[in-house]
Amino acid sequence: MTKPTRRSALKGLAGVAGAGALVGSGMTEWAKAWAQASPFKPEAGAALNLMRWRRFVVAEDEQFNKIVAAFTAATGVRVTVTSESFDDMQPKASVAANTGTGPDIFWSLYSTPHLFPNRCVDVSDVADYLGKKYGGWVPVAEAYGKLGNKWIAIPAAINGGYINYRVSQIKAAGFNEVPKDTAGFLELCKALKAKNTPAGFPLGRATGDGNSYAYWLLWSHNAAQVDENSKVIIRSPETEAALNYAKSLYDTFIQGTAAWNDASNNRLFLSGELALTANGISIYAAANASNDPKQKEIAADMDHAYWPIGPAGRPTEIQLCFPMMAMTYSKFPNACKAFMAFMLEAEQFNPWLEAAAGYLTHTLNAFDNNPVWTKDPKNTVFRDASKRSLVAGYRGKLDEKAATAMADFIVVDMFASFCTGRETAAGAMQLAERQLQRIYR
User: Fold this and answer.
1) What is the pTM for the complete model shown?
2) Which end of the chain has the smaller Cβ count within 10 Å, N or C?
3) Which percentage of the chain shows pLDDT scores above 70?
4) What is the C-alpha to C-alpha distance for residues 196 and 246, in angstroms, rounded to an integer?
5) Residue 87: its pLDDT value, please?
6) Given a cut of 80, is residue 15 above it in pLDDT?
7) Record's PANTHER family (predicted)?
8) Model pLDDT, residue 1
């Protein structure tokens, strides 16, 4: 088990958390009353270990810790929280599932529960309780949370990733806004390069940003890795068009994107070297909360936009789901369920959502009206992330095979190998096809 860590370079909106802090006798009494009335009763003597993705927004971290403290005060269940990088979450969860030992709860990414669905506690009762109370789940949450009719995870939130850009720099390049179509978007990136204020998107194995970019490239050109019957269809004229478009974009990028991880674009944008990328709201949150005048200047000069629409003619983005799953080897499955339900109750979830400052988007419809989406117009685009997102495995099923293909970075590697010249378009597609056929056999 690793010690808790935090990505110190990215500062959150620390002041937001104070508005909804779980402190004071009133909130403590509410939490205790909840524990008494809740249908989810922890086992006697229960204690939980929870592993989560590493924090990007400090205020979210602080508010989450207050939720944990309130749960312990109300139930007596001690919760030990550790964190790992995006890239380490899925491998560690897989090892725990295979060995039958590890944290009681993994709060992981994307389709991780579908890698080992039989090792996940059935949490259908938690999902039904929350869905009925809070206006139902958005479709993408059901896709990630359910296997057949059984819920194997609770999709606590979606991290929306959209276009982050410097307003002054796209204007200097001759554009008043980020184009809404892929053809115009390429022209913007060319113009930014000509001004020596380039764009950049990750072609390295970045679990969040790399997958988001690669699947958008693929799907926006009406291509997919499999069809509705899970037949591999990656080698197609549509995929070749996506590869050629990706190469045209890559030629406008700042140097080094083939080696980027999930922190690289944040760092370069905040250093002023990058004019446009795709990311969650964490770049804006960090710059806005900083005491550095240069960071404040970046925050004032940046905004967000949806992913451009490609030949497919509709939104084709994939957003980063954060499913929370209890493991069947846990001695305290009821305590796991109680924590999941407690966290998503409005009294906890609304302040936590505000503290995340737009970095996290809700998956229950009742939270559409949280003030975080309207108090700052630069946040609003992220409100729609959970309702616009497609799922891993599109057009086929979201299952263990789709989860494996994403975990193995097959689509990311296909684009990277072509854009960097390691493979021809035909070679890149053939390699991806062969890898997918081993999974979808």
Assistant:
1) 0.83
2) C
3) 94
4) 20
5) 83
6) no
7) ABC TRANSPORTER PERIPLASMIC-BINDING PROTEIN YCJN-RELATED, ARABINOSE-BINDING PROTEIN-RELATED
8) 36
